Amino acid sequence: LASTSATAVLRFFQRVGAAWYRLFSEDNHGYGFVDEETPELSIAIVPSRRGSGLGSELLDALLERARGDGHHAISLSVEQGSPAIGLYERHGFSQVGEDDGGVTMRCELG
């Protein structure tokens, strides 16, 4: 069940962001887990580049890849109150759960 897909952004030969998704099992998963059929997304942008559109760029690329790979939905976990929640909502994610200060969100890819 260990299937991972990733992408990265380089600016001026420096890594400034990365994103990936991975399928997990019920027995071994991350905070954004919803089920074994839905890959869990992770995304990171270096602090100095946040708010520049790179997160959107990475998210668009990864959502398109997930669709191309035949996934019907994707999920993630984000800290409550994070400004990234707005980014995820703009890309079609909605809240499906809360736990220990985190919010689990899911995006239908249909």
Shape descriptor reads globular
Arithmetic mean pLDDT = 86
As a whole number of angstroms, the C-alpha radius of gyration is 13 Å
Biggest β-sheet description: 3 strands, antiparallel
| Helix content range | 10-25%
Summarize the helix and strand pattern as letters.
Answer: EEEHEHEE
What is the strand content? Answer: 35-45%
Number of helices: 2
Record the strand order, biggest sheet. 1-2-3
Structural class given helices, strands, pairing? Answer: alpha+beta
Q: Give the uncertain stretches in residue-range form.
A: none
End-to-end Cα distance: 22 Å
The beta-strand count equals 6
Quick summary:
The chain has helices at 54-68, 84-90, and strands at residues 4-11, 14-22, 40-45, 73-79, 93-99, 102-108. With 110 residues, the chain is α+β, with helices and mostly antiparallel strands.
Description:
By secondary structure, this protein is of the alpha+beta class. The chain has two helices and six strands. The chain has helices at 54-68, 84-90, and strands at 4-11, 14-22, 40-45, 73-79, 93-99, 102-108. The strands form two sheets. The protein has a three-stranded antiparallel β-sheet, covered by helices on one side. A three-stranded antiparallel β-sheet has the order 4-6-5, with helices on one face. A hairpin with a 2-residue loop joins strand 5 (93-99) and strand 6. The longest helix is centred in the middle third of the chain and has 15 residues, at 54-68. 26% of the residues are buried.
